[in-house]
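Example 9 (inverse folding). The structure is encoded as follows.
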């Protein structure tokens, strides 16, 4: 019986679920057979039907320290009793300034200034606005074009889906932002399948293509290029060796800002504070969210180089320098959770642990090669993607079935079409990695 048929047969069974329009979810199928998390602790969700589910996707790439870490919970409880909200426009509170200093210290070069938002989507749109406004303030107002990448994901704001390259996120919403172009996705399954880490291939064809796009529009019209260090939402696709360094060189040569979307890769996922450090590049703007405060309260940020910040400050000697912001920017509760999270990262050696576990995780993930319908496996740090062969006339159906069968084995991963993704909590050990892979192995065999 298909998921849709089952959903139809169970119509009306769970009426109390109907009012909530769920995001990025097949609502009919879910509400016929819901998966309800009632509480969580450590590595596990506890569900309404009495099950204990290993969270092998770190929430949604965000709970890097697991669930209900006592130090984060304590910080949030203390904060709500002290200051529940502070207007971010013309007012401040101590923790948000402290948090900006803690964050900027982790990023390379002079990425010294942090603009807080509430999500990765808002961080991406904020970064794009900063890039275009910066070029104008520099006297290069013709630089308004933006370049994204095929299969890229930068949230769901109009800016993010315009520079993003995931078809279903774009096709329903009209013409999107004008003046946007896209680079080729730097991955070919035919030649790179089952690559461990970064593929050792020539990246110059990708740079030549980018040079062609720049020549087509002329560099004087292009404000920024935006990319993910690895494509997480699309299914964990990893760039080839030297790709990020060459991308930085090409953009810098043409006076084009490089925006690196670290919403997924930031805060330990790669066994480093961030992907910019991991790849040895210094972007102009970085976007972050998710792991910044362990997903406890919505929070994100755009981090900019000192020269960009100074340009805004000097161009507007009085009054508001950047006409942008959100009601909940730098919310006290989010900042308290973030400070506690960052302290745990530093004091408990979380990044080092993630780095140490990466090799074991790689071996475990690639042990799935040869399982039914597995046509590709990719990994970097504590992230892995597994692609299953698409069923004829039913794209995404096999991936969904594997996801559901894996869940039946008490492990939560993620499926995006026929691409499956695993993102262990960064403090997990070998036992949890083994449990994850074996549950997925059973899921692959059961869904074949």
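The amino acid assigned to each position is listed next.
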């Amino acid at each position: 019986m298909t998921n849709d048929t089952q959903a139809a047969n169970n119509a009306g069974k769970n009426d109390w679920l109907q009012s909530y329009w769920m995001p990025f979810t097949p609502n009919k199928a879910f509400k016929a057979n819901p998966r309800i998390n009632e509480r969580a602790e450590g590595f596990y969700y506890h569900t309404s039907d009495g099950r204990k589910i290993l969270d092998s996707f770190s929430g949604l790439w965000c709970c890097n320290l697991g669930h209900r870490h006592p130090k984060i919970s304590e910080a949030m409880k203390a904060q709500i009793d002290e200051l529940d909200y502070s207007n971010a426009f013309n007012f401040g509170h101590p923790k948000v300034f402290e948090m900006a200093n803690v964050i900027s210290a982790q990023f390379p070069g002079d990425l010294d200034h942090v603009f807080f938002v509430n999500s990765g989507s808002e961080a991406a749109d904020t970064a794009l606005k900063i890039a275009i406004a910066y070029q104008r303030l520099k006297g290069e107002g013709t630089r308004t074009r933006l370049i994204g990448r095929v299969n890229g994901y930068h949230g769901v704001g109009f800016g993010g889906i315009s520079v993003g390259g995931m078809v279903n996120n774009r096709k329903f919403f009209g013409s999107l932002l004008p003046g946007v172009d896209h680079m080729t996705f730097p991955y070919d399954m035919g030649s790179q399948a089952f690559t461990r880490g970064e593929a050792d291939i020539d990246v110059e064809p990708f740079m030549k293509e980018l040079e062609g796009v720049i020549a087509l529009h002329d560099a004087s019209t292009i404000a920024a290029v935006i990319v993910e260090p690895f494509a997480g939402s699309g299914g964990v696709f990893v760039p080839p060796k030297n790709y990020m360094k060459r991308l930085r060189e090409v953009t810098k040569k043409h006076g084009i800002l490089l925006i690196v979307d670290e919403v997924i890769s930031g805060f330990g996922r790669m066994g480093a504070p961030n992907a910019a450090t991991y790849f040895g590049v210094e972007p102009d703007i970085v976007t972050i969210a998710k792991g910044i405060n362990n997903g406890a309260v919505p929070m994100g940020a755009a981090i900019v180089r000192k020269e960009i910040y100074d340009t805004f400050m000097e161009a507007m000697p009085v009054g508001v320098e950047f006409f942008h912001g959100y009601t909940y920017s730098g919310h006290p509760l989010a900042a308290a959770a973030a400070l506690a999270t960052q302290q745990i990262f530093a004091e408990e050696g979380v990044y080092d642990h993630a780095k140490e576990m990466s090799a074991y995780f790689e071996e475990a993930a690639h042990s799935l090669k040869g399982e039914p319908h597995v046509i590709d496996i990719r990994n970097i740090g504590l992230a892995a993607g597994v692609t299953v062969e698409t069923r004829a006339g039913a794209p995404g159906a096999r991936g969904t079935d594997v996801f559901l069968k894996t869940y039946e084995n008490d492990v939560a991963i993620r499926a995006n079409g026929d691409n499956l993704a695993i993102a262990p909590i960064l403090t997990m050990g070998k036992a949890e990695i083994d449990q994850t892979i074996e549950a997925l192995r059973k899921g692959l065999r059961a869904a074949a």
